[in-house]
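COURSE: Structural Biology Practicum
ASSIGNMENT: Worksheet 4, Part C
STUDENT ID: 0417
INSTRUCTIONS: Below are two proteins. For each, the amino acid sequence is given first, followed by its structure token string. Answer the questions at the end about the second protein only.

PROTEIN I
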Amino acid sequence: MMAAYRENLLLEESVARLSVLNSEERLLTFLLSLVDERQLDRFPISIRVPVQKNEIAEIISVTPESCSRTLTKLQKQGVIEWKDREKMLILDKTVKHLVPFIKFFR
């Protein structure tokens, strides 16, 4: 009973913390969660993205259309760059402030 209570409490805490992030921040945090922690200080960060855009949208709790628009916006801003279907680069060092939130996607 206590284990279920603690698990529920942790889930509520995760939801509360992620709710303070906007869709761009949730997307970038998810992408950062795919990276080995030792590489988080090396830019650009190369990421293998093992899921499709619609799955990313579900994970970060946005519509597929919103996820696509956010990816396009971040690419136009020079924050990310798609290399191919499964490989992406994070170019902008300002995303480092999101590192504490990656634990919610692991």
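PROTEIN II
(use this one for the questions)
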Amino acid sequence: MNDARHELNIQLKKFEKRMPAKLGRFLHWLRQPGAFWVRIPFAVFFILFGLVGFLPLVGFWMVPVGLLLLAEDVPALARPVARLLAWIDRKWPQKPKPPDPQKLSPR
């Protein structure tokens, strides 16, 4: 595995963990090698519908999602998408962890 693919896999795993559970599992399933026949049409769908983002229900947000899916199969996209995901990870605020009840209760 080359460096760009490795970097992409690391960033995608981080991204999956930050998503809602069902969506993260679906993305993980789409990234599996056997899901090639589903991943490519999904990627094309997201990119094409993202280009008409001015319509209701679709949006320009769909283009990066399509590129993310396509990066699994197009090596030239792996590094730019990995860098984009790293940038999003730095900018996306972390959810605060809920307080530990053990530490809150008076002793």
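ANSWER KEY EXCERPT:
Q1: The mean pLDDT is 82.
Q2: The chain has one domain: 3-90.
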